[in-house]
Design goal:
Layout (H helix, E strand, L loop, with lengths): L4 H7 L8 E5 L6 H13 L8 E5 L11 H11 L6 E6 L7 H11 L2 E7 L17 E5 L5 H12 L6 H11 L12 H22 L6 H13 L7 H10 L6 H13 L3 E8 L4 E11 L3 H7 L6 H15 L3 E7 L2 E9 L2 E7 L6 H13 L6 E5 L7 E2 L2 E5 H6 L4
Parallel strand pairs: 1-4, 1-5, 2-3, 3-4, 6-8, 10-11, 11-13
Antiparallel strand pairs: 6-7, 8-9, 9-10, 12-13
Length: 405
């Protein structure tokens, strides 16, 4: 199994600590594999495998344990001594009132607990108060570029002498791990991704939020996909439908966006006013949980390239632990402000710096920000200048290869 050290190394310090380890993310982003990797790590410490209880609730073989009492009683029969037991519950949201069971395990047994879920609202219900203060959450993304290189190196048994060609392949296939555990054509890859998308929409959006107007939900999804990297609001979408002679309530659109975000199908990025030092509540940007979702729905289209590149940079930053905002600087916009601890960086992403006006626009706003934090312009230009007045310019493949900025 290909390791994902980016996440594993964050979780290892919490092994045997009195916190529930909660792993969330888009379906098929690698949560189950990460559970297996954690299990392997625990076994290297000499733990008896009989002390590990592993249940995947997407498997019908575990359907008998999808309510709180049956799950509790099953675990109770498996815990046969006072030794520490390790509980792994994959897709825990399939269990009714799972929070009560997990809380009881902490109270009644000597256990270390790991759970996964495909919904960001996993810990926001009233029942989640049972475990408030007792968990630590890890959100995982699909493969970033560095992970893609590691995965494909195993498959193709070769290094990557041409980083930019490798990025072009990553750009066209996206980051779902399953796509990079074998050799697939673009057509086959998009078919696989479409099935993942359908499952995420049906199970984590329509069923979980009891959405009745599926056709409207699909139209909202297509609007978001068609406006990747653009600022808009629920009202913008409602107004668009109104222009199409279709009346839609703004609150309905907002609820649909919220449901899609909770299923990690889309990512909402808030705007931050640099001068006013405040988060703005309007005109957020929306990006996809993986760029291949767009290809699976609409095919690859060159006209979306700027938004797609922004999407890739956003997911890379999130995978590396950064909190990301869209920047507002007076009347100008900065694609991303990324923060982690005391670190901060400003990033402009574009396709090509083909004209002087583009150079002036992308570099100009960053040069106006008078602080000591790093500033980058990222593009796909084959030839570029390393530094313009303190603003560094990177080909996107080189930028994504950096482990720290």
């Amino acid at each position: 199994m290909q390791k994902r050290d980016l996440y594993l190394q964050r979780i290892i310090p919490f092994i045997d600590k009195p916190f529930i380890k909660v792993i969330t993310g888009l379906r098929r982003s690698g949560k189950s594999a990460l559970l297996e990797l954690i299990k392997e790590e625990i076994l290297t410490k000499g733990i008896n495998e009989n002390n590990i209880i592993y249940l995947n609730f997407e498997s019908l073989s575990n359907n008998a344990y999808t309510d709180v009492l049956s799950l509790y009683n099953y675990v109770k029969t498996q815990v046969v001594n006072k030794e520490k037991y390790y509980l792994f519950f994959d897709e825990i949201q399939e269990v009714n009132e799972w929070e009560k069971a997990v809380n009881s395990f902490l109270v009644d047994f000597n256990v270390d607990i790991y759970i996964t879920g495909s919904n960001s609202h996993l810990l926001s219900s009233e029942l989640a108060t049972y475990i408030t203060g007792r968990y630590v959450e890890f959100q995982i993304q699909t493969l970033n570029f560095n992970e893609y290189l590691e995965f494909s190196e195993v498959i193709y048994s070769e290094k990557h002498p041409n980083l930019k060609e490798s990025f072009n392949s990553y750009l066209r296939l996206g980051g779902f791990p399953v796509i990079h555990t074998g050799i697939y054509s673009e057509e086959s890859a998009y078919k696989i991704v479409y099935d993942i998308y359908s499952s995420a929409v049906l199970r984590d959006t329509i069923q979980r939020f009891q959405i009745r107007n599926v056709e409207l939900l699909e139209r909202v999804i297509l609007f978001v996909f068609d406006n990747i990297g653009n600022s808009f609001s629920a009202k913008n979408i409602a107004d668009y439908f109104k222009s199409q002679l279709r009346k839609v309530d703004v609150n309905t659109v907002y609820n649909y966006l919220n449901a899609l975000e909770s299923a990690f199908i889309i990512n909402r990025v808030q705007r931050y006013d640099i001068k006013g030092k405040e988060i703005l509540k309007t005109q957020e940007k929306y990006f996809l949980g993986d760029v291949s979702l767009m290809y699976a729905m609409m095919g690859y289209r060159d006209r979306y390239i700027s938004g797609i590149l922004e999407n890739i940079v956003l997911l890379d930053l999130k995978s590396k632990g950064y909190k990301v905002f869209v920047g507002k600087f007076g009347t100008k916009e900065i694609d991303f402000i990324a923060e982690k601890g005391n670190a901060k960086l400003y990033i402009q992403v574009c396709y090509l710096l083909a004209e002087q006006s583009t150079v002036d626009r992308e570099f100009g706003v960053l040069k106006e920000i008078r602080d000591q934090y790093p500033k980058y312009v990222v593009s796909m230009d084959p030839i570029w200048q390393d530094n313009i007045d303190g603003v560094k310019h990177y080909h996107i493949s080189d930028f994504l290869r950096k482990s720290e900025y």
